[in-house]
Amino acid sequence: MFFRIVERSFSKRKSRVAVAIIAVLMGASMTSGLLTVSGGIEDKLGKEFRRFGSNILVTPRSDTVEIGFPGISFGSVTEQRYIDESDLLKIKKIDEWSANVLGFAPFLYQVVQVEYKGSIQKVILAGTYFDRGYPDLVKTGEVWRTGIKKIAPYWNVEGAWIEDGDDKSAIAGISVAGKLNLEVGDYITLSYENSETKNMTTEQLKVVGTVNTGGSEDSQLFVTLSAAQRISGRPGKVHSVQVSGLCVECPAELIGAEIVKKLPYTEAKTVKQLVRAESMIMDQLGQMMFLITVVALVASGMTVTTTMMTTVMERRKEIGLMKSIGAENMTIAFIFLAEATIVGVAGGFFGYSLGNVLAQYIAESVFSAPISPLLLILPVTVVISLLVAVLASALPVRRAIRIDPAIVLRGE
Amino acid sequence: MMAKPKIVLKSVTKHYDAYTRALNNVDLVIPEGEWVSIIGPSGSGKTTLLNMMSGLDTPTSGTVSINDIDITGLGQKMLAKFRRENIGLIFQQYHLIPYLTALENVMIAQYFLGTVDKETASAALESMGLGHRLEHRPAQLSGGEQQRVCIARALINDPDIILADDPTGNLDVKNGEIVMETIKRLVSEGRTLALVTHNMDIAKQGRRTIELIDGKIFNDSSNRADTPLETSIARTASTRHGVR
Q1: How far apart are CA B178 and CA B147, in angstroms?
Q2: Of the partner residues A9, A325, A409, the one whose CB lies closest to the CB of residue B153
Q3: Residue of A199, A196, A200, A192 lying closest to A108 (CA atoms)
């Protein structure tokens, strides 16, 4: 009988029920949508942040020796050490956070002399990976690739990138190109004298592109790592490695620690400003989404309250009658709370579906990537919607149980 | 032998506000199984008097006792229990729930008592001549039929007190007669009836008629010369307050 009363009451007030369900649905869709987005946003935002470059710098651990007499310091001497290129793959093969290592690029630097059409400039030669493939790290049919292209998508290269294994090409920073009047396609002569062996190396390289980053790269000349190693006479050596670690809950320090565990002769420093900014943006975004969700749910709740209040006023006579023939306040309350429960569950369920559409739209328009619906969010959304509907019904229910049957039945 | 008092009102006064006195120091005793008709002009306090008896309204002062229980001291929960177990209410406006069928309108009273029985509810409606109207909604029924559904609902939990507020007031003569025949049958079965009416012919069918004026019992008289009233308390009270 109870369910018949609720069901018949619903079918008689379709439009009001629809308004209440739509109100809950709107709040629920925001909840579901933003929960889905926030579930995937850390991953997506982390990847977006990686467009700004690496966030971990791996360098060899150096011993610094203080020189001088007691009370008189002549400064310090630091022994130059290197990272072995053969160890680089260990960075990707760390234990726990391997999947978060999006890429890395090794660097070997050497000051060299560049000559072009009679102009001579000393520039920093940087050898690195541009787009290095690792066939032994094949996942889902794709070779794992790393290098500048992967970790520094902000590089603005005019002309062409250097192909992996092409040791006869160079990319000139925009300042270097400007000073030497270089253009893409020009050939430059590069020379380097080893200070220890006094061997002079001379190479002719083709400038295949120029790079403009607005940073220190603009003053450097880039070649493949193997070319830099050959020119500087440091085969298999690397000065530093820039690592791009995906910051979900920002475990950059943890990734760094794992790298050091694999390469004990190195130290890993996180780019703190970037890490902090990422963390702050994540927090603020989370707070903003929480606030939007709360506001949406409060708005939904207020609409449900208004709708239910109108329903109570419309049903005053019916409530008065029920009381007059023996209904207890609890019974009246249960009837309205049952209606609120149905409104909440239905709104939550449909809201979850709409929320997924919303999440897809946000993901596509903001991150240009789809987002997977999370089934776990369905019960969460339904429970939240149910709570909102029931809490929003508290005032109307209170009004209902305070209805005086004598007054109502008199027609006042 | 004097019948046991069923409904006893002692010095009942009801003020709605400083200026509206619906009942003024009413004393009334209705013995078990008696039909008391309540008459009086509009606004004289007839419906308020019925509401006091059913516990739908509480007196500003005085007490209302049913079956020796002072219902003015009961809480909402106990009052609801008292009503569903003891009182059958019949309204002038029928007050059926519009979205429920005739059968469901009867069953809802069973539901509140916790004993839903479709067969009994159907039988109650059939006894009212509404066996063919079980699944009809109130809007599909005539006024007389709606009032009979209301009576079936009032009786479904077998109350021993029927409080009827002008049950024929909205009915034509024929339907009014059908309803009154049903009500007479209820009294003949031993139920106590308090019936508010504007119709003197109906009032006279009861054993006793109380006339209310300005919230006071103006007259309390037997409708049968051969059967003197046993309600001396009521007679005394009405004489005390009702002299004009």
Answers
A1: 10
A2: A325
A3: A192
